[in-house]
Amino acid sequence: MHKDKIKIAALKSTPFVLYGAGYCGTAVCLMLEEENLRPVAFCDKRRSGIEPGSGLPIIAPEELNGAYSDVKILVTSIDFADEILRDIKALGIDEERIYSVNDFNIIGKPSITVNSSVVATKMKLLFFLNTFLIGGQERVVANLTEALMNKGYETILVSSLRSYNECDAICSKRIFLNVWANDLEDLEKPLAEVIMSEQPDVLIGFAASNAAILANTRRLIPGSQVPLIFSQRNDPTSMFLTEPWHEEYYQIVIPEADGAVFQTEEAQSYFPAELQKKSTIINNLVNKRFFSATSSSERKNIVGVGRLDLQKNWKLAISAFSLIADKINDDFVIYGEGAELENLKNHAEELNISTRIIFAGITREPEKEIINAKLFVLSSDYEGSPNALIEALVLGLPCVCTQFDGGGAERLISDGENGLLVPKGDADALARAMLKMLTEPKYAQTLAANAKERASREFDRELVLEQWEEFIDEVVKRKRNSDF
User: Is residue 244 within 8 Å of 237, Cβ to Cβ?
Assistant: First the structure.
């Protein structure tokens, strides 16, 4: 690899392949597009086919000596660069063909998009999420930045890297730091530069990891008194059991946060009394599209929406579906991506229902995809207040949900009134509830109508926005008074 920084023009006169079709690879591809550069393919020894975001082919390493023997190779990884270099050299490839992403001045060069459609008349709010892939948390932030911007706030949304699977966000300013977060210090320095340049009135970090990064960054800024709001998005007890490394984040956030927003009383009660005194409970802000969506055809199928990971326990939902599959004509359509995809496909195969389970991938307009479903199912083991369930309730779908840890299930659904609740991890109970909803349509529609009516009140957008505005004002005033 090249020791000295060289000009990006070195790649402009020659075709090149990006080695690495994962998150870093697609981020580099997007950075290069700003320089009017586009690779001819990705290379990856674990994947093949087409990279869905870019539409570029993913080739095997051996093809670098075949059809792609005349192209340059740009290694996108930093953590595994040495390992990749050894693999490439083992193929007998000339080192002169190989470049590293570190050879060019693209890493750490922020990408900034400014939206001047709304003139700010109120405070400047800076939101930070390390990544901004499509997910419930990201949708809530995107809804907030747009709605608060339209209320006169200047909303700035900062993330480390881009991806083709970014959640769509409308805000006053979008900043990608274009930094690999291998070490938090690598991320905090450029983030500090952005904060010093933008001079926001409030910092807002959704999830402990993002709030911790903001807290550490604030320490790097001499004399900074900008208040920090931390928003807890999941069941903290379960997170400690399944992801114990979060303890470090909480140790940073708890004493540093000037205010905290929780989704449930149960999550709020987990934290020290001092932080509870500075906190509030606010419902998720739901995109206005869900309130206006209408069913356009006959209802069919069961749907689920969410990441394909262990927390969501899709295996339970698939098992429950297998118990009733021969009694119904509807299929089970699951929207989402994640590490458990192959395991879930294998589970469906073992249960002989693989043709009835449809893994539909990510959708940017879930309201259009699920509005005509007969039933929405959530089978999680733990949650905060799940966005996908809230959106289904707002749409007026019949909903069946596990009593997941975190308190959100009982807060959102009163069993037998606006949905059905079943014990966590109980496939038989889940199957019975699903079958009841599917075979008693009048009962299901009564619960669905109740769900829509209740959700329209509890998740009224103006009410949620008003609560956020009041809490932001409260935190700013409290911080200001404490500094004197």
Answer: no
